[in-house]
Amino acid sequence: MAKYIKHDFFYPTTPGVVWEYLTDPELMAQWLMKNDFKPIVGHEFQFRTNPHPDVNFDGTFYCKVLEVDPPKKLSYSWKFGSGDGVLHNSVVNWTLVEKEGGTELQLIHNGFEKEALFLPLFASMETGWLRNMNKIFELITAAADGTAKA
Amino acid sequence: MEQQRLDVFQVIADPSRRQILYLLSKDSSTINALAENFDMSRPAVSKHIKVLSNAGFITIEDIGRERHCVLKQDGFKDLHKWLEYFDAFWANKLNKLGALINERNKSQKK
Lengths: 150, 110
What we know:
The structure holds 2 protein chains of 2 kinds.
Chain A: E1 5-11, H1 15-23, H2 25-31, E2 34-35, E3 44-48, E4 60-69, E5 73-81, E6 87-88, E7 91-99, E8 102-110, H3 114-123, H4 129-145
Antiparallel strand pairs in A: 1-8, 2-3, 3-4, 4-5, 5-6, 5-7, 7-8
Chain B: H1 8-13, H2 15-26, E1 29-30, H3 31-35, H4 42-54, E2 58-63, E3 66-71, H5 76-109
Antiparallel strand pairs in B: 1-3, 2-3
């Protein structure tokens, strides 16, 4: 559905190197989390980290590879929950673009269900999400126009 | 125009509807009580409420002669925390990746 969490980072290396860090389980573990990832569409894997009681998180992300297009695009489903069997859906999307002197890496973490995506925005306007919401509206509008930019 | 089925973005693009959701996030309310917060007529407020209800953001319950609007907020506090958590989580991880790549570049130049 809508874009939600979005980060753009520039790294002074080739897309090929960034791709390795996104898809080699050992390199991924160095900056992300322990995992049993394989760059094969349909492969199911997990990221494991410490439980995070503050957000009712049991410490495991349940993932499935959705798209592998080296060294340009990678996406996987990203399900999470408190360990009671109920999992929230979301999707992690990586896009790599070669730029002068390096690589632009874009992360879009989206696919949260509608309630997950929008109700928090309204109910927590006081805590600063309104700013983010305006940004999201810009992104959505830009995307609809086909002029989305970093 | 409002009778057609609006998508989620059209539903929340309207400032009055956002205001209604915000008010309901504090407490459920009757349509009459909600209408007091707006300059527009009660039927106009009702129309916005219908749009929000059709889109699944709120439910309307008849209690006696009054219609009560309730925000659908299942699991909402958790999810709000999640989204904040992931935003910070990714920023942190991606910075870590940057540090790794810088180290790698340095060691290759030696």
